Amino acid sequence: MTSSPLIGVLALQGDVKEHELALEAVGAHTTRVRAVEDLKAIDGLVIPGGESTTMSNLAIRMGLLEPLRAVSSAGMPMYGSCAGMIMLANTVIDARPDQQTIGGLDVTVRRNAFGRQIDSFEIDLEIPAVGELPFRAVFIRAPLVESPGPGVEVLSTLRRGGAAGTIVAVRQGVRLATSFHPELTGDTRIHDLFVQIVRQCS
Amino acid sequence: MGDQDAVTGTSRVKRGMADMLKGGVIMDVVNAEQAKIAEDAGAVAVMALERVPADIRAQGGVARMSDPDMIDDIINAVSVPVMAKARIGHFAEAQILQSLGVDYIDESEVLTPADYANHIDKQLFTVPFVCGATNLGEALRRLTEGASMIRSKGEAGTGDVSNAVTHMRRIRGDIARLSSMSPDELYVAAKELQASYDLVAEVARLGKLPVVLFTAGGIATPADAAMMMQLGADGVFVGSGIFKSGDPVRRAQAIVQATLNFDNPDVVAKVSRGLGDAMVGINVAEIPVAHRLEDRGW
What we know:
By secondary structure, chain A is α/β, with parallel strands linked by helices. Chain A contains five helices and twelve strands.
């Protein structure tokens, strides 16, 4: 068990810095992952928010997609927020037909499920896995989870409005994913949960 | 608990959207075909406009918001976010763009200003705005009006990066100066910057703007993009530089790669090879002062 695991943040594009700050706030060390060799030393990987179309495109072009799939298959803990959730999903709908993901998370994710940027929102969520206090969640052109597979634990759903019941946070073993951006609010409980998963693993 | 209703258009939602674009390239496009090329090349968003700045410069006349049909076509063609430009102060154009569902509005000096005194009251909108700035005071005034992202103005449509460099250095220099001031000096700094004291104090404390800072205005080559990123830009807007060049597909890919690998000269060198002709440039110094776009907005 490592007390301060080294967590990589995929740094192709997106809010890399915000994830680094959140991870460091809960006692992890961080490093940026942009090339295959950056994957060697890390105990876990965060895939940040960003544009999933672009991130997928750049992962392929930088020769990172297959190595990412390999470390994922080998059991490396991974956490994805928003675009990161899309990158972890086995299946994506409402995306370009050629959009590739790392996969490993047995869910179908719908891109931009809530609409365009004017429909982006924030809301309090209940996430019992990280404690009783509500979690202020920021959704930006966010995806949602449809048809989670049998091994997938639903951590949170929206409670009110037209989208009530929508799944927005899931865990499957060492894989964690949220539709929203905990890295933007200063609430580090999701990152803390991920670091605990990494610690249990290493 | 956890039962509050969703709130749209908050500062976090608007500024957060720009955070998701960091490290990326936003490309000017004038039709769906160009938008697809931009997306395929790895653009993180596209800017829909009727004429790229180089053509606005060459053709003259009043430059306005684009035709809604054209914006719809572009929105339908790509999955990345779509931005569009409104004239400075033209709040009705901005209302139309919000109604069309664009993801970000650029209140842009590239178009002909509609109001020579007032900018759009961006606080009134759910859609976020990006605005140009040449110095910190201008950036902070735009933030007070509700902008959620700032870009250098540079000098659009020239392919001459020198003004973008000047503006980025000036903004960052102004911030560095604030950060070195004692608290009692910040009051006078706020007066001189013509910006609110609270915002000035926040920037002094953070050592950076509280929003994402992109660069724009004259970026035409991978080397330009790499330089602007090293000067502290969070990302790059490329206007005329791509589709006014000899090989837009390769140049677009190359600028994306150079922005991502800005600190790796080996990669920037590799992607700079064989790109064909860059856009024909205009030296900013040769443009009559009255025709310079950087002086629009105040």
